[in-house]
Amino acid sequence: MDIQDMLEKIDSREDFIEFISYLIKDLKQNSSEWENTNLEDYLNGIASWVEDMDGIITEENFTKSIDWGFVATILYIGSRYE
After folding, report:
1. Which residues form the DUF7660 domain (predicted)?
2. What is the number of alpha carbons within 13 Å of residue 73 lying toward its C-beta?
3. Same domain, 12 and 48
């Protein structure tokens, strides 16, 4: 299964955890295909994409359904949790 297929099938916490594990594996095995291979560049890439996503995502209600506070919590806790 490729990464695009996985993205389309994330419907649960377990799917999300599996996807993160896949990202880690993909970074280790295919780092030459990644634009952002260190944490600072990766976070900057996320921020840039979120800024531009209105021009990329055409589904009108997509951004309204995102719990931005929860996304921020996940990013923050990942920097502190063992």
Report:
1. 12-82
2. 5
3. no
41 & 26 share domain:
no
HSE-CB of 25 using CA atoms within 13 angstroms: 8
At 20, list the tokens: 């993160």
Domain count within the chain: 2
> Are residues 29 and 59 both part of a single domain?
no
What confidence tier does 56 reach under pLDDT thresholds 50, 70, 90?
A: confident
What is the per-residue pLDDT across 30-42, written as a single tens digit (0 to 9) for each?
999 999 999 999 9
- State the residue range of the domain holding 66: 36-82
